[in-house]
Amino acid sequence: MIICSCAVVTDKDLEQAVLEVMSQPNAPLPTPGVIYRHMQKKMQCCGCAPLAAETIYTKMEELEKKGLICPCACATAKTRMKDIMNPPERRVARTLREAPRPLTAPAAPAKHKTVV
Ligand code: FES
Known about the structure:
Bound molecules: FE2/S2 (inorganic) cluster
Low-confidence stretches: none
Radius of gyration: 25 Å
Strand content: under 5%
Structural class: mainly alpha
Shape: elongated
Strand order of the largest sheet: 1-2
């Protein structure tokens, strides 16, 4: 299946590139940029970037299940990807934003003055 029509990249090309990249010592995070650079291809319109990223991570998991790439390298890549997608400062902000608000007592009803 064609993933990128600009650079003519198929899912098989991505799978082979992921295998080669993830087999390197200290494998880099297999971002679409890293994978395309490894294939000596260049994105032009970048319309395929979301599909390329999804395909790369699907292929990475498939290769891990087949035992063709090291599970430790995959775990490291997944952890680094989670950190990029959800950096610690965002986690703190989200935690603070989602923290339960302290309960406050409802305002006491106004007392009516008795006119004599
Ligand atoms: S479709 Fe991949 S760069 Fe345009």
